[in-house]
Design brief:
The protein has no helices and eleven strands. With 126 residues, it is mainly beta. Strands 2, 4, 5, 6, 9, 10 and 11 form a seven-stranded mixed sheet that branches. The radius of gyration is 13 Å and the shape is globular. The mean pLDDT is 96.
Length: 126
């Protein structure tokens, strides 16, 4: 089992940047694929980015590709999401999640993930 705690959210102006962190408890962090999802008011939760167990493979939603970078530090049990060129459309609660079993197809799907954090609010002002 793993517990996840997000941090780094906040209020930022359009065009700005944020770095989200996801700290995981336990000693098996490296055995999980990790992902970021977000949910805006009135909208369904959507995939943002994911990273494989070793960090070798990364996956991005088209909406953030090219301006976001997901990474992980298995020695620190922490995953990161660096987001640049933020727009008001990026406003949402951002969740990190852990998946024991996944493929390059299912890693995009929220149902693949077993453990979820409580979320961190990101608000981008225009």
């Amino acid at each position: 089992q793993v517990q996840l705690v997000e941090s780094g959210g906040g209020l930022v102006q359009a065009g700005g940047s944020l770095r989200l962190s996801c700290a995981a408890s336990g000693r098996t962090f490296s055995s999980y694929g990790m992902g970021w999802f977000r949910q805006a008011p009135g909208r369904e939760r959507e995939f943002v980015a994911a990273v494989s167990r070793s960090g070798e493979f990364t996956y991005y939603a088209d909406s953030v590709k090219g301006r976001s970078t997901i990474s992980r530090d298995n020695a620190k049990n922490t995953m990161y999401l660096q987001m640049n060129s933020l727009t008001p459309e990026d406003t949402a609660v951002y969740y990190c999640a852990a998946a024991s079993w996944f493929s390059s197809v299912t890693i995009y799907q929220s149902a693949t993930y077993t453990y979820w954090g409580q979320g961190t609010q990101v608000t981008v002002s225009s």
